[in-house]
Amino acid sequence: MARSTPEIPNASMADIAFLLLTFFLVTTTINNDKGLSIGLPPPPDPNKKDEVKMQEKNLFKIQVNSSDALLVEGEPMEDVSGLKDMIIKFIKNKGVDPSSSETPEKAIVSFKTDRGTSHKRFVEILDIIQGAYYDIYAEQAGVSNKEFREAASAIGTDPEKRAIYERGKKDYPMNISIAEPTKVGN
């Protein structure tokens, strides 16, 4: 007489696997990385065809080539440690230096890269530019840079933080022009 081998009942295994999968999908939280917080400009008015005329002195030019070399206002810059101070001085000029920006509203920081520029370098320079504006905003609001950044990230939830944010940005619009990258070699 042949003996049968005992088997584990597996008829409900698929049901159990489905329930476990559902449980993990429902209970798992996914981190939402914020990335770069850059406000896009409003869409252009299709009925309005104005030609933009801007004085060259209201434009602070920063360029990064495909080798990640930095050119600021036409001059090569090896160390980026003084870049933030240069940007702040340009934005806050208010016509004091006739070769620099007339007003904070007209001051534009132009950032242009090549297609070969590394992401790390792009983010590093963009962070310096935004950091310059945040330093100005924090000074305007009378708080530390850290407090201003916290206020900026929580403006929708706390009226007090919204007031700090609005007080800081009052007279200094963040005018950053990120030009389309040029092809390598052009």
Brief descriptors of the model:
186 residues; alpha/beta; five-stranded mixed sheet; 5 strands; elongated
List the helices and strands and how they pair.
Elements: H1 13-27, E1 59-64, E2 70-72, E3 75-77, H2 83-91, E4 108-113, H3 119-141, H4 145-153, H5 159-169, E5 176-178
Parallel strand pairs: 1-4, 4-5
Antiparallel strand pairs: 1-2, 2-3
Helix pairs in contact: 2-3, 3-4, 3-5, 4-5
Describe the structure.
The chain has a five-stranded mixed sheet, covered by helices on one side. The protein is 36% helix and 11% strand. By secondary structure, it is α/β, with parallel strands linked by helices. Helix 2 (83-91) crosses helix 3 and helix 3 (119-141) packs across helix 4. The protein has a domain at 66-178. The longest helix is centred in the C-terminal third of the chain and has 23 residues, at 119-141. The chain has helices spanning 13-27, 83-91, 119-141, 145-153, 159-169, and strands spanning 59-64, 70-72, 75-77, 108-113, 176-178. It is elongated, with a radius of gyration of 26 Å. The N and C termini lie far apart (87 Å). A hairpin with a 2-residue loop joins strand 2 (70-72) and strand 3.
